[in-house]
Amino acid sequence: MTSEFASPSFLSLPHEIVLNCLARISRSYYPKLSLVCKTFCTLLISKELTVARVHLKTHETFFHVCLQLPDRPNPSMFTLWIKPGQILTNQLEKNERSKGDTRLVQIPSSYYSKVPPYVITVGSESYGLSHCNDPSSIMWVRKKRTLCWRKAPNMTVARAKALACVLSGKIYVMGGCRADESVNWGEVFDIKTQTWEPLPDPGSELRFSSIRKLEVFKEKLYVRSNEDKDSVYDPKEGKWDVAIKSHLQCRIGNVRCYCDKQSCWWYDKNSKEWRVVKGLDILNRNLGCGMIEIANYGEKLLILWDKVGPSQDKDIWCAVIALERRVGSDEVWGNIEWANIVLTVPSSYVFMSSLLYRG
Question: In the beta sheet, which residues pair with residue 351?
Answer without folding.
Answer: 67
